[in-house]
Amino acid sequence: MKSDALRGHLDALLLATLDGRELHGYAIIEALQLRSGGALDLPTGTVYPALRRLERAGFVRSEWSTVSGRHRRTYKLTSSGERELANQRTAWREFTVAIEGVLGSGPWPAKA
Amino acid sequence: MAGQSLIDDYLDRLGARLDGPRGAKADLLAEARNGLEDAASCYRDAGFPDATAQARAVAEFGPLPLIADEYQEELAVAQGARTMRALLAAMLVVHVLFMGRWPTSPSWVPVLATAVNYAWVVVAVLGVLALVGGPRLRRCQRSGRSFGRLAGSFSTGALTACVVLQGTLITATAYFNLGLLLSPAILATLGIGLVVMVRLVGMTRRCFTVSAAA
Fold this sequence. Notes:
Largest interface: A-B, 24 and 25 residues
Oligomer: heterodimer
Helix content of chain B: over 70%
CATH architecture of the largest domain in chain B: Up-down Bundle
Strand order of the largest sheet of chain A: 1-3-2
Radius of gyration of chain B: 24 Å
Number of strands of chain A: 3
CATH class of chain A: Mainly Alpha
Structural class of chain A: alpha+beta
Number of strands of chain B: 0
Structural class of chain B: mainly alpha
Largest sheet of chain A: 3 strands, antiparallel
CATH superfamily of chain A: Winged helix-like DNA-binding domain superfamily/Winged helix DNA-binding domain
Radius of gyration of chain A: 17 Å
Shape of chain A: elongated
CATH class of the largest domain in chain B: Mainly Alpha
Shape of chain B: elongated
């Protein structure tokens, strides 16, 4: 999947990746690739500014800490981020149902 | 540079494209280095030679113009927030330094001094709101640069108001009570105010240049 198609969904994907756990930047990228079966083709360098943007929005909190013996910035969801993720999931389900209704139903029946 | 690793070279070129507060820039680049080294380490663990592992990590990270553009958004926010904090702190200090120092006649001078006090309260409230709320704007893709420009515009307006209002009070004091204006305490206060003003003008200008960089 190309990065242009992903950009509009990147914030929601990052929030979902952080759901229930605290991760550093590269672990978030690995989790995204793992869950998508490697289909998400995104310049990894765009993930870090996106995480900062989410932090500015109050959806994630970050801190420098030592992980596996290395100094890394780790991120976790705030309560506001959890609410935003729930909203994004609801909006995504509504969107996919609507699109599936149009794209997935085949040709219109022929007029009698 | 000869002898540098591919990751070092990439980060040097990324750093050269970025413009903004030193601390924020170093923090972004440190995180980028961690990500690149993690990626290269994964490729080395998968059996790739070091040079290939680094080349793959750099290629995955993304083209420099795209990455620099996104990082610059964050630096614009950092510069804007820094300027707003400095502006609010400076206005508080200058206000306290000048408080109660103006002549009491003619009658319009105390009225103007009171108006200046209220103006500072309004500017301070707006400034705190912009500082707290501005960086949270995220819907617009260019929200970081927008906040940087907003901070620059706000600071320009506040500094202009400061020059006009305080300038009027200083001129009135010079006209009606020159001795008071030339007292060591007032001269020292004016000197401090001038230094603070010059520093803030520089920071305000940086808001616009950092928001337009990369």
